[in-house]
Design a protein that fits this description.
alpha+beta
Length: 79
């Protein structure tokens, strides 16, 4: 998520209008937030601190290209 490897430094990213955000489930939003906040790059990527919304805990980050990614704490059968 936080890599632009393989992209030329002077290559302009043209963001389309078909994607607003993606959601990725995680075991613990708080642990993910702590891990991101431990680094300068990760800390600056956070645009929404963990909070309870929609019946679960979520947080928001931006990838290096500016796309919004929400981490959502979700229970699954295999956890």
């Amino acid at each position: 998520v936080f890599s632009t490897e393989g992209q030329a430094a002077d290559e302009e990213l043209i963001m389309g209008n078909m994607l607003d955000h993606i959601v990725v489930s995680t075991k613990s939003v708080d642990e993910a937030a702590d891990a991101l906040k431990a680094t300068d790059e990760g800390s600056s990527a956070i645009f929404m601190d963990p909070k309870n919304m929609f019946g679960t805990k979520i947080m928001g980050v931006r990838d290096p290209n500016g796309y919004q990614i929400y981490l959502a704490e979700m229970e699954t059968e295999d956890r």
